[in-house]
Amino acid sequence: MKRVAITGVGAVTPLGNDTATTWRRLVDGRGGISALRTFDASTFPVRIAAQVNGFDAARRLGRSTARKLSRAAGFAVAAADEAVRAANVQPTDGSQWCKGVCLAGTVGRAELTELVGMAEDVLAGRYRRQAPAVVVRRDQSFVSAFIARRHAFAGPVVNISTACAGAANAVGEGLRMIRAGECDVVLAGGYDSLTTWLDVLGFSLLGALAAGWESDPAAASRPFSADRNGFVLGEGAVVLLLEDWDRAHARGATVHAELAGYGSTLNAYRVTDSPPDGGGAIEAMRLAIQDAGARPNLVDYVVAHGTGTPGNDASETVAIKEVFGEHAGALCVSSPKSMTGHLTSAAAGVNLIAALGALRTGLIPPTVNLRRPDPALDLDFVPLTARARQVETALVNAFAFGGTNASLVVRSARGGCRD
Amino acid sequence: MTGTVTELGEKVRAIVGEALALEPDEVIGDATLLNDLGAESIDLLDILFRIERSFGVRIEAAELADYVQGGIPDEEFGDADEMVSERGMAQLLLVMPQLETGARVSRIKADEVMGLFTVDNLEQLVRSRLGAAGPAGG
Questions:
Q1: In the CATH hierarchy, which top-level class contains the domain A4-416?
Q2: Where is each Ketosynthase family 3 (KS3) domain found (chain A) (predicted)?
């Protein structure tokens, strides 16, 4: 079976507008949650989020490009640019038909002010005229197509929409595209910006968001804490450059890690509740480990989905214990969402940055704000500060409303060089 | 009168520059929209949308080809070799006068005509519509 290398990573996150800054702040335990600035949230029950700062799409991507992109799409294009640049993949390098794109996102939404105008016109029986750039900004498939064209990737383009499991599904499907021999190179990841009035309202109504932390936003995201009460919405994009292992080595590329395994399942349980018995997440993790040709006791680090909702963290802990048995106690398990908030479709991308950084540096990002552990959740969640530990194999989790579970296994390139 | 003419041209060039994110000095009158300035069909739609907002003149994208062909049906506009016919060329010179000194009649392929449509040609189109409709709100 073909092996898959990760040769480039790009990111725009609440911690920084590139991968290096994001990783540094993850290890330092410096979060990015603050008062909501993307709209006037003064009447909303939740008024905090983890937002991207100082990102100027026009300056970074060019005015012409930026006009046609939603906020989330701008993050995605910038992250893909960084990944391609980092991997040093040139447009003329290899066949354009064997370069694919597989990205997870959310269908675009009209701005509130735009909707008001549309509603007035439609109700009055008028045909609504809009700039075409505004129309394409709402289209999910346009984003990946735009990225593909920008880098002359003319192979298959796949758009994933599995909510908070999105980026893990996208990276996993990208792995399969390379293994199948369909692609040599795939840009894979996720992008989202659900820090909008519509989504803050929606997730608040679902009772999913951490409430009551307006005076201390940095403390709001409390995965695995006894006093956790929901997640904090984040935004951003993470895109990986996946590459056929042999091709990457043949061209002398820097291989950050091996993308070794992928598993995905559905709970087939309730729509927004996590199954108390761990549900399909158990099978997703097992499949990913098996797919990597590994065994549970070879895993050093689990980058948890760890949202900070009462249900997820309990369910995920049960699932991890079920998969790893006695080895569960020897694992490091941490949740980057304690710092980045929940990047929804891009969330697994942040977890992959944590995993890749840990493989490279031997430092495991902490779960911050974990001062009052939940006695029922008794794994080593790496509380408060980073941990030094050599990591050879890491498992990344991403679960979603609707019940989708996706897990990925990444392995150090050092191990990969042995055979 | 000259002032108004220049003003209209400047407005059209500003609209093209804004839609294509070009600097003002890149948008010169004899630049072709598609070939020189790299406009795609979505950009043409954008330009026409902005013209509508700015001049109150509504031009549908589909009308552009009709305007250029002056209502001559495709089979008469192009000859058997898909080159612009003599009749077609006479029409083209009315709306794209720059072709007079450019390529000879027989050298223009019918399906490449739109690629030769310039910023000045667009300005002329807007002016003709404004003239037909009378002064419109801006």
A1: alpha beta
A2: 1-412
